[in-house]
């Protein structure tokens, strides 16, 4: 008996072996490299697939990003780290309410609410007690 060695014998008819395919796996990570000036970023070659390239400039405290936009032109953005001055960090307390003022306001609201509720209750009782004359 001759067997064809090109096709393996299959005992389980429901199982179909899948061909092995190799997929290109791109390494995960950021694209780009450290630079020392904006001119260096402008001259840097980037991929045409629209992926974002990041160029940190540590000396000038900037981060540049560059990519090819949908219209085919290079899009360049600049992000700059700035220090806040001490005057920006302080908060003025003149527009805030103290805890005591807040408690007093809450107490006034409670008193006015209970007074209105009592007045409404008395008005309802007076209406119920008034006989109807037809």
Descriptive notes:
By secondary structure, the chain is α+β, with helices and mostly antiparallel strands. Among the domains are: 29-81; 97-125. Helices cover 31% and strands 14% of the residues. It is built from three helices and three strands. The chain has a three-stranded antiparallel sheet. It starts with 37 loop residues before the first helix and ends in a 5-residue tail after the last helix. The mean pLDDT is 80.
Any descriptors?
134 residues, alpha+beta, three-stranded antiparallel β-sheet, 3 strands, 14% strand
Largest pleated sheet: 3 strands, antiparallel
Helix content: 25-40%
Work out the number of β strands. Answer: 3
Tell the overall outline.
Answer: elongated
Strand order of the largest sheet: 1-2-3
Structural class: alpha+beta
Taking all Cα atoms into account, the compactness measure Rg is 39 Å
How far from one another are the termini? 118 Å
- What's the multimeric state? single chain
- How would you state the average pLDDT, rounded? 80
Low-confidence stretches: none
Q: What proportion of the residues form beta strands (DSSP E)? A: 5-15%
Please give the count of helices: 3
SSE pattern = HEEEHH
What is this entry, summarized?
The protein is of the alpha+beta class and 134 residues long. It has helices at residues 38-43, 86-89, 99-129; strands spanning 53-57, 62-68, 74-80. The radius of gyration is 39 Å and the shape is elongated.
Draw up the topology in text.
Elements: H1 38-43, E1 53-57, E2 62-68, E3 74-80, H2 86-89, H3 99-129
Antiparallel strand pairs: 1-2, 2-3
């Amino acid at each position: 008996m001759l067997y064809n060695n090109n096709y393996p014998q299959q005992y389980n008819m429901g199982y179909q072996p899948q061909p092995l395919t190799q997929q290109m796996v791109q390494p995960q990570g950021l694209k780009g490299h450290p630079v020392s000036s904006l001119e260096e970023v402008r001259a840097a070659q980037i991929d045409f697939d629209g992926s974002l390239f990041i160029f940190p400039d540590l000396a000038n405290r900037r981060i540049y990003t560059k990519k090819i936009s949908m219209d085919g032109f290079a899009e360049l953005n600049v992000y700059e780290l700035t220090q806040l001055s001490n005057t920006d960090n302080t908060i003025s307390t003149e527009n805030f309410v103290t805890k005591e003022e807040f408690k007093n306001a809450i107490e006034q609201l409670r008193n006015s609410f209970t007074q209105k509720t009592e007045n409404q209750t008395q008005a309802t009782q007076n209406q119920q007690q008034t006989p109807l004359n037809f």
